[in-house]
Amino acid sequence: PGASGEAQDGAASKLVCRVRPCEKPCQAVTVLERETRIEVTLNRGQPGVQVRFDHVLGEQREQQDAFDLIRPGILGCFRAGSAGCTVVAHGGPGSGKNYLLSGLFQHKESQQGLVPRAIRLIAENLKGGRTSVVAVEASFFEIHNDEAYDLLKGGSQRVGLHELPEPPHVAP
């Protein structure tokens, strides 16, 4: 989302693919950052499946590169007093979702994920502000097999989610 609460081009959301480094060389996946697509070829000699995204970040990219893509949306929501901003990480086990969102808290700033960076960005924008009271809330959910779990409560407590007509559209 941009300053109006929408993405820079007017879309309500952006689809970004961040490619995790492979443990072994993988010939089947071609990452085309400039063309914002990924191509997967399962059988040699046959055309691959192409998937397009708003942005593609190859495996050599850093946490900061991912954050730079969402930073304008976070600032836009914050400055507009929006009901909320949502960042979703999707992928299979071991695909890097937790690292992307949380990073490594104990390590260098360069290894911090999107959430600590967003919190720092909001805190920096609160300094010297005109508003005397600001409420900032955060939720951290894992959705697995259509069940939601509250990760701030240990991840074992199942949470029922329902859709709302107004932002943030989904609530516990």
Helix content range of the residues, please? 10-25%
Whole-number radius of gyration?
Answer: 18 Å
Order of helices and strands: EEEEEHHHEEEEE
Largest sheet: 3 strands, antiparallel
Q: What's the structural domain tally?
A: 2
Report, as a whole number of angstroms, the end-to-end distance: 22 Å
Gross morphology: globular
- CATH top level of the largest domain? Alpha Beta
Q: Structural class given helices, strands, pairing?
A: alpha+beta
What's the name of the CATH homologous superfamily of the largest domain? Kinesin motor domain
Q: Report mean pLDDT, rounded to a whole number.
A: 79
CATH topology of the largest domain, which one?
Kinesin
Number of strands: 10
- Ranges with pLDDT <50 over ≥5 residues? 1-10
Strand % is 15-25%
The CATH architecture of the largest domain can be named as 3-Layer(aba) Sandwich
Q: Order of strands across the widest beta sheet? A: 2-3-4
Subcellular location: Cytoplasm
Family: Belongs to the TRAFAC class myosin-kinesin ATPase superfamily. Kinesin family.
GO molecular function: ATP binding; microtubule binding; microtubule motor activity
GO cellular component, one term: cytoplasm
